[in-house]
Structure formats: structure tokens, C-alpha cells
């Protein structure tokens, strides 16, 4: 067996550094230097790169997501009581302050990759996070794995992210489309009935097709029959021609899969075409601000699922501190975009402290083994599945409240159920996930 | 194969959609056709119009009053933009005009975002336009039906002002030979100002009328700008009647394609534009040479 002199030197240097620096320990069987590690671990800080659409159709969700990251980072850096209640010790992560920059990527995957590459090369980012579209998340996951930098997925519901496009360096906390559909369909069928006719409005990108495929499958299991499927381009402004077909389809239920600004425009127009007076509206993945942007009049009785709703604070102590901290800082109730940013930041920080290193391979392994030691979070106990890096987590099912039942201007939903995550997980191999190498 | 009622429904919807596209495109074609400026702030001005309606509705609670007040805002904005920036670029190359108007568009959109945030604002359908109207086998939103009539009147009014008045004649003469028009003692710069302001009011009005239909966000104009360019390319660059016909054709293509498969509606629109550019580069109503 021959020793590579360079590897030997690197290994020796890494071992020496591990002894000297508390954030650079625990690297058994992992390369000493990988991605931005250990260069990105300074004595007093680490850098995190956030790629978020602050303009474009996803800007509303992006703004919310950004505030979630900022709140978590502020709490962690300050060593606040909240950070301690999550299980973190002292100020920052492993004694290092988190520095960060936000890049407005407009929801365009090429800009996500461009910004994230700058974060890696210029700022030596130790972790990447962000995205409000599945297309962006897929691009960032691939970049993270290529550059060996951990990427904590932002808002992204497509099955592909932890399916055929899954990557060793990407971890997602949001439920995938399959989980959301499997959780939602029985609840909705119980409320609205079996053997109904459904019309689908599907945005033409990975998220839309993924959510459609999953919800069509699980609603069919409830006896629902598809009578219309209208596929429309992302960013469509006038849905009249698609809505005419839906209005004339004879459907009982209108399943609107459009997201963000598209969800607002299509739902407004559906109401004007009389679709909502003749059909029940179901939204498999509710957009963050859909409630406020459309108003309670339109949203009452609408069924949907999402990552988090602020009244979960009545069930989970960490949700309560999150909501209180967010309202104090931002003067509105957080939507689920903010929750994803907040929770993913804490999960990364917790994992770093558990592993006692910023070494990405060790962090990946720690998260892959989290089933044995689940994280206590804003939505109770959760863990990442080792096979595809999808979080196993409960899924809230919401129903829009009538205006008269709202206790405050942002009390838009009743939580009709919180479905156990284990019961709705797809088999890990179903969407063709093949995680790449660690190094 | 869709049923005949479905095809007729989509053909009617194409007419409604087309009239909206024609109005949206009219502001672009007015400024291009008379001043020769390709206004890349068009989409942003559409969004400003929608926000003007949103703000004015808070104060007036009347959609008609909000439209009138909104037109005042757009007129003022048009005058300011022309006097402070655009007039300095009439004699500059096309690329400079495109860059400066593109820059104006970015600034306007970001001002909207700074003032109102990125989330959609709610603009309700006016009380007289709520509900749906039954037209035989077709049920259609009442507001959209009313819009067809409103837009037809607006387009006719714009056409008469710009192409059947002395002012319109002066502007077109000024484009061809500003020196000669000046020698004749006519203040051509003032006429340019009026035309630019009318173009801005036209696109702003389109934004106001469309605000109850679409999601009112700072970026809402981007798609409309792209569609407006397709419409004026179809109709002929700078041709007012071309924009109207181009809008109607675009509306019919989008809508009738949707009767078969809505995912191909945009593809068909751009395919037609490409075909037309090959067969008749000047568009249906355009003339060869400068616009």
C-alpha cells in the first residue's frame, strides 16, 4: 500500500488543527480539508450565505424566509434564553458568531447558483441556505454537493429535492409534495366527501408537476375523479382561458397548485369566473401570505397544508418562543417561510454543537443519524431520514376561518389536524434518490 | 377535441383577453409610434398604475374616483419623467433610450417595493362589476364584460386624439423633421411632452383597470411588458391600429390554444410571432423602415 505524501501531510495538518481549534475536531475518517472547511472556520466567526428571492413572484415568501433566518441568527449569536432552550450553549455556534449575507436571487436558479458560488469562493461560506422555489433548491443542492458545502433547503415542496435530485449535502425540513398530499387527502375527503370530481390548475415547473402527481394519486384513493387538468406557465398573469375550462368541467373541487403571486392571481380570477361559488377550493401547499393577500372572505373554508401555522404555539413551547420573538421583532405573525428559515438555522447550529465541529461530512453523518436522537423543535420531535435527507415531521392541515370567527386580523386558519409524519412518508426509494459521496 | 360550446367560449374569452392586451400595449405603441422611443419602463408604469388605483381606493372608496385620481398621478409622473429624463434622450441612439427607460423601470419597481413591500395588495372588483353574467351556455365575469366596452371607448378616444387631431400631426411631423417644424413656429417639445404623458396615462390606466383581476405586486408588469412587445410586433411596431389587432390576435391564440391544451398557449403565441417575423418582419400594420 502506497501513501500519498500530500494526503499524509494534509491529514497531519488537519489532526494538529483539530487539537488546537475546538471547532475543527472530530474528523475521524473524513478528509481534513473539504469544501470551505477548515478555511471558513475563523477563530471568532463563520459565514453563512443566504440566497433568497426578495424580488419577483416569490418575493413575499422570500422576505418572510429572510426574517426567519435573521431571528434565529440574532438569537444564536446573542446566546439568548431561546437559543439555550433549543439546546445550544453560549454565544454563537461552538463559540463563533454567525456572519451572513443575503443575496436577492429573484427566484431564478442561475442567480442562486451565481450568488452561492460567490459566497463559497469569496466569503468561504460554511453553510448555504435559502430558495423559495424547487427549481432553485435543486440547483443549490447540486452546487452544494459539487463544492462540498452543506445546503439547508429553504422553501421547496417538490418530491425531486429528496427524490431523483437528492444530494448528499442537502437537507430539507419542509414536507415534500407526497407527504403533504397523503396527509391532506383523507382529511379533505372526510370533510368534503368521497367520490367527488376534481379540477386541477398546475403550474408548469417541477413543483407544480410534483404536487399534482402526489395529490392526484392520494385524492384518487379517496374516490376523487379528475375531470380537468390545466397546466399553465409559471408567472401567468391571466388565467381566464384555463379557468373557463375548469368552470365548464363540472368539478366539485378546484385543486389550485399555483404558488406565490400566481396563487393570488389565479384564485382571484377563479372567484370572478364563479368557480369558487360552485366548487370547494383545496390548496395542497398554501402560500405563505395567501391568506392576507386574498382575504378571509375568499379563504374561508379552503383546505390546505403547510409547514407551520402560528397557532401551533399552543402545542409546542419552542413554537411559542419563536412566534413571540418574531412578532416582537417584525410586528406581524410569522408565516411558514419564516419558520423554515428559523428552524433550519437552529437545526444546523444544533448539529454543529452535537458533532463538535463544522466539518460538513461529520455534520451530514450527524443529521443522517438523527433518528436515534431526534431534534426537539417548534413542531415537536423531528429527524432527517438517512436515505434521502427528508425530514420526518408532523404536517398541519388548515382550514380557512370565516371572517366572523377570526380572533385577530391574522387569525386566518383553524388547525383541523396535525398528521404524524411517519405515517405519510414515501418509501425512500420511490422517487429514485441516490445520495452522492460524502467527499 | 373540445366541444363546440367550449371552442365558442374560448373564442369569446379571446376577445376579452385580446382587448385587455390591446389596451396594455397601447401605451407602448403610442410612445414608440410617435416619439420613436422604445419604452422599457412600460411594465413598471403598468404596476405604478395598479398601485395608484390601490392607494386612491383607500382615500375615495370609489373605483371611478380612484381611476380619475390615478390618471392624475400617472399624468404627473409622465410629465416629470419626460421633462427630467426622457427628453434628453430623443436625439440619442436607440440603445441609450432603451437603457435609460429600463433603468427608470427598475427604479419605479423598487420604489413600489420599498413603499408597499413584496406581497400582493388587494384591489376589489368595483361593486358594479361583481358577479358573473350568463351568456347562453357561457358564464363570464361581469367586470371583464364591462372592461371590453370600457377599453373599446378608451382606445377609440386615444386614436382620435393622437391620429385625428392637429397635435398628432405636429408630433409625427416633428419626428420626421424637428428643425422644419420649429422653423414653422410650432413648439414641438411641448407636443412631445403631451404624447409621452398620454402614453404613460394609457399604460397606467390599463394597470388600474386590471388591478382587480391580477395580483398587484411590484413585479406585476414584467409579464405584461413581454406580452405587449409580442402584441406590437404582431401588429407592426408603432402602429396604433396594429396594437389593437395584434392584441386581439394574441388573445385569441392564447385562448383557443387553451381549449386544446393550456400549457401550449404561450408557445403558440411566440411561435406565431416568430413565423410573422420571418414572413412579414414589419408586422401586420407596420411599414418598412423607421417607425
Task: Give the gist of this structure.
The complex is a heterodimer of chains A (439) and B (291). With 439 residues, chain A is an alpha/beta fold. Chain A is 41% helix and 18% strand.
Feature tags:
heterodimer, A: 439 residues, alpha/beta, Rossmann fold, 2 domains, seven-stranded mixed β-sheet, 15 helices, 15 strands, B: 291 residues, mainly alpha, two-stranded antiparallel ribbon
Give an account of the 3D structure:
The complex is a heterodimer of chains A (439) and B (291). Chain A has 15 helices and 15 strands. With 439 residues, chain A is of the alpha/beta class. Chain A folds into 2 domains: 11-175 and 313-393, Rossmann fold (3-Layer(aba) Sandwich), CATH 3.40.50.2300; 178-306 and 396-424, Rossmann fold (3-Layer(aba) Sandwich). In chain A, the strands form 3 sheets. Chain A has a 7-stranded mixed β-sheet, with helices on both faces. In chain A, strands 2-1-3-4-5 form a 5-stranded parallel β-sheet, with helices on both faces. A 3-stranded antiparallel β-sheet of chain A has the order 11-12-13, with helices on one face. In chain A, helix 2 (59-78) packs parallel to helix 14 (336-355) and helix 14 packs across helix 15 (360-368). Chain B is an all-alpha fold and 291 residues long. Chain B has one domain (14-219). Chain B has helices at residues 4-35, 42-60, 63-84, 94-116, 142-163, 166-176, 178-183, 188-210, 221-235, 240-261, 265-279, and strands spanning 132-135, 138-141. Chain B is globular, with a radius of gyration of 19 Å. Chain B has 11 helices and 2 strands, in the order ααααββααααααα. The N and C termini of chain B lie far apart (42 Å). Chains A and B meet through helix 2, strand 7, helix 8, helix 9 and helix 11 of A and helix 1, helix 4, strand 2, helix 9 and helix 10 of B.
